[in-house]
Amino acid sequence: MVTIYIYWISTVFLSFIYISSAIIYVMKRDWVGETIVGFGYPRYLQPILVAVKVLAVAAIVSRVNVALSDLAYAGAFYHLLLSGLAHIGVRKPKGALPAAIGLALLAASFTTQNAARQTPSPYARSAAEQHVTLIKRSETWIA
């Protein structure tokens, strides 16, 4: 039961980060465009990122297709990782904080999704498998 709460709380907060970021990209277009160019990326990336962020949230939350949902998780992982590294690369580590929080939320959401969703993802372990693995590890530590 706790795993289901962890899944939904982390997924809601991750979705909030992505949707609020997409809104900022639209509302503060010039500032975001200058920031993207400051990272060394082309400005035309901005509308693509808005679309990808909204579609990733839609795929993860609606889970119409498990493979599409897993692809959205993978895309979000790489996006957050590269976003954090871009901020660190231009010597603005405080700007990497939302990406770090997003990565933690993404990891929590991805690893607990099988407990909360009816159709399991083949890439995320079920809660029972994680429990068995922990028991086996503890036995090897004792022996």
Gist of the model:
This protein has about 140 residues and is mainly α. It has helices at about 1-25, 30-40, 45-60, 65-90, 95-115, 125-140.
Topology:
Elements: H1 2-27, H2 29-38, H3 45-62, H4 66-89, H5 97-116, H6 127-142
Helix pairs in contact: 1-3, 1-5, 3-4, 4-5
Q: Note the beta-strand portion.
A: under 5%
- Average pLDDT confidence is 88
Query: What is the share of helical residues?
Result: over 70%
Largest sheet geometry = none
Question: What pattern of helices and strands is seen along the backbone?
Answer: HHHHHH
Give the number of DSSP strands. 0
> What does the radius of gyration come to?
18 Å
Q: Given the helix and strand composition, which structural class is it?
A: mainly alpha
Instruction: Estimate nothing, just give the exact number of structural domains.
Output: 1
End-to-end Cα distance:
32 Å
Number of helices: 6
Q: Report the principal-axis shape.
A: elongated
Oligomer description = single chain
Poorly predicted ranges: none
